[in-house]
Write a sequence for this structure.
């Protein structure tokens, strides 16, 4: 029968690495801030385009 291999990252990744968890949490917060800013910019651009279209009518 085939040999069963251990999970690929089991040796190199530690689950109890508080520094890694802190970095991941900060990266997630930064990503969320960036996505919110992009959404606000897109919303503002959409409102501006709608205002310009209604002004032209």
């Amino acid at each position: 029968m085939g040999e069963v291999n251990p999970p690929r990252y089991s040796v190199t990744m530690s689950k109890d690495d508080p520094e890694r968890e802190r970095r991941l949490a900060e990266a997630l917060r930064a990503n969320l801030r960036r996505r919110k800013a992009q959404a606000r910019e897109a919303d503002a651009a959409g409102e501006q385009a709608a205002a310009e279209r209604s002004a032209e009518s």
Observations:
- The first helix runs from residue 18 to 56.
